[in-house]
Fold this sequence. Notes:
Number of strands: 0
CATH topology: Growth Hormone, Chain: A
Strand content: under 5%
Number of helices: 26
Helix content: over 70%
CATH superfamily: MFS general substrate transporter like domains
Order of helices and strands: HHHHHHHHHHHHHHHHHHHHHHHHHH
Shape: globular
Radius of gyration: 22 Å
Number of domains: 1
CATH architecture: Up-down Bundle
Oligomer: single chain
CATH class: Mainly Alpha
Largest sheet: none
Amino acid sequence: MIPVTHQQAAASLSKNDLPLIGPxxxxxxxxxxxxxxxxxxxxxLNDVLIGQFMxxxxxxxxxxxxxxxxxxxxxxxxxxxxxxxMRKAGYKTGMIAGLMLFGVGAFLFWPAALSMRYEFFLGAxxxxxxxxxxxxxxxNPFITQIGDSSGSERRLNLAQAFNPLGAISGVLLGTIFxxxxxxLSPQSIAASQANHTYxxxxxxxxxxxxxxxxxxxxxxxxxxxxFLLTKFPKIAAESxxxxxxxGRFSELLTKRHFLLAVATQFMYVGAQVGTWSYFIQYVQTxxxxxxxxAGFFLTGTLVxxxxxxxxxxxxxxxxPPAKLMGTYAVSNVALxxxxxxxxxxxxxxxxxLTSFFMSVMFPTIFALGLRGLGPNTKIGGSLLVMSxxxxxxxxxxxxxxxxxxxxxALAYIVPLLSYICVALFSFLASGPxxxxxxxxxx
Length: 442
C-alpha cells in the first residue's frame, strides 16, 4: 500500500471545503456584490422604457428596440477602455469610474425629457451603459479571483444572484412610477388630437421617466464616494505588476474555450434581453392583459430568475456548473418552442419559466471563459463584457421578425436558437478535453 503524504491528503479534500471568499475580502466582496444589484435596475428598466417610449413617441417595435441597441452599444465600445484603465490602476479605480459615468448618464435623462427628443434618451442610455461596462468589466473578474479558482463559478453565481433582485426592483419602479395606467384607444387619441390635448399627454408620459433615473444617479454618486473611502486589498492577479504586463491580447486567440465563451455569451445575452424586452407585449397581445398587469408579470418572471440564481450556488456543489447549464439550456429550448407553437396563456407561462433556467447562464459562461487566462484575465473579461452587444443586435432582430411575420411569438425563434448554442457550449465545456485543458491552466 502506497503511503499518503500530508500534501496528498490535503489535495484530496473536496474543493467545496475551501472557503468561497478569501480571507480579509468580505467587505470588498459585499460592496462589489451591491454593484450587481445596482446595474440590474437600469438593465430591466429598459424593458419598461420600450413600452413607455412606444406610447410617448409613437414608435414601431423595431424603433423601440433601439433602446437596447443604444444601451448595449455603450457596453461594447467602453468595455475595452475599462480593461486598459484597470490594467494600470486596478479594479477599484475601474469601479469608481463606472459609478461616476453611470451617474452622469442617469442625470442626462432630465434634459432629454425636457427636449422631448427620443435620440437624446438614446444618448443618455449610451452614457449610462458605458458606466455599467466599467462596472461589469471590473466586478465579474474581481469576484472570480477573490477566492480559490475551483469555486469561481459558484462565487460568481452567488454575487450575480443579487442582480435579479435589482432587476425586480427596476421593473417594479418602472411599472409603478413610469407606467401611468392611461392607455388611449385610437378613438381617444383622435378625440385628444382634435381637442389639442394629445401633445400635453405625450409630454406628461415622457416626463414620468425622469424621477427614477435621477434617484439612480444620486445612488451611483454616493456609492462612488463609499468605494473611494474603502480599502481594497489587492488580489493575487494584481499583486505582481510584472506578471500583469506579460498579458497579450494575441494569446486569447489561442484559447478555444474562451473564444467559444465569447460567442456563446453574445447569443445568451441576446436571448435574455430579447425575451424580457418583448414579454410585456407578448402578454398584452396573447393574454389580452393591460400594460400595467403585463409589467407585474415581467416582475414575476424576474423573481423566478432570482430563485434560479440563489439555488444554483447550492446546486453547483453537487452538479458541475457546465452540466447544470446544459440541462437548463435544453429545458429552455423546449419552453421557447412551446411559446412559439402555442401563443396564449400556455406560451406566457412557458416564457415565464425560461427566466428560472436562464439564471445560471451569464455567470457560468463568464467564469468558464476566464479559466486559465492568467495575466490576460482583465482583457478577457472586457471581451466577455463586449459580447453583451448581443442584446443590441438580437433585440431589434426580434422586433423586425415580429413586424415581418406579424407575430411576436414568431420573434422568439431568436432566443430558441440562442439556447441551442448555450447547450452546445455547455456540453463542450463539460467534455473530457475541456476538463483536461482547464486542469492544465488552473
